[in-house]
Write a structure and sequence with these properties.
13 helices; five-stranded antiparallel sheet; alpha+beta
Amino acid sequence: MAYDCYCAICGVGFCGMHIETPSEASLERRRRWIEKRYRAMKASSNNPPLPHENEARDDPVRSYDPRIVGWDNVSWLYKAYCLGLSDQPDTKSKAFISGPGYYADIGEIAVKTESESGHTQQRNVFACYGSGSDDARGPVIPFHWCCYEILTRTLTGSTDTNNVNTDVLYTVMNDLCNMSGSALDVTYGPDYCATHPTNTPTLEKFIQTSVTEDKDLRVPPTKIHLNGRSPTSPFGNLPLEMIYRICSFLPGESIKALTEASLSMHLVSQHNYFWEKTIQWDMPWLSEFHALKAGKEKSSLPDDINYKRLYLWLDNMTAPRYGMDNPSLTGVANRRRIWKVCEQLAPRYLKGLEEVAQK
């Protein structure tokens, strides 16, 4: 792991990813360590206590599981790109994107480019989160390309990276550089998964098979009996369209809490359509499911899905957590974590666009 420079979007470094040697002894040590860590994290709400004296003697596992992660899974981490400011006065956009390059240590990204003659290569060196270099008049913001693609979808709703206003994005990210000059001052969350976040070829099939074969996901929604009770809350006076609109701004945990606290909302949430829309609002990062949902083939998903159960199942299965071992899910769990970072940047970016439009 690179200890002094990290991707501005996912918070992971650009080198030093170690995959464990696949021996029985190392795998058994890994199993014991993960089991112990998992119990500690569960007991302390994901804030592990200090280990006891006998536990402290155990060597911590700092490598990736070879049964889950191979070179193909981590090679993307070594390709570095950067967002910087151009020193060319005649360019329409002040910001530029350079790469792919590699991490050259001490907080620098090196990018090799061909000379104008095409016969030789020149090496441009950019200082990340620093004060600039000979090749850029200010600090550059380093990132992995697939992380930038996720950021693009979060900011623009499209997959076309050309839709991003890089001038505005550079200003936003540069203002958020942390005091140590190693990343942005945002909450990245624990990087439990190193798997590529967008290259997830088995996920769509996994979801389709699970939904089709798991009968619990197709149990008819439970009908609630009021037994003479009459809902009295502000939500009971609102049209359904307004309630759906309000819920579209809430995270899934808040929606679940609201349906438990308000009888009116609990009644609304009995409709399958409510949870179908909740998946759309709360899981924009789950493109594989949305592709299945929009599929032209009628056999893509069953017609009798219980969307509340499906939402809870998807929320649990894709949650980034310590000890994940399903190759079909580690990538999307990583994407979900990265999307949360992008959502922290989005309000600043949109505000920057508004300020540019007003000039």
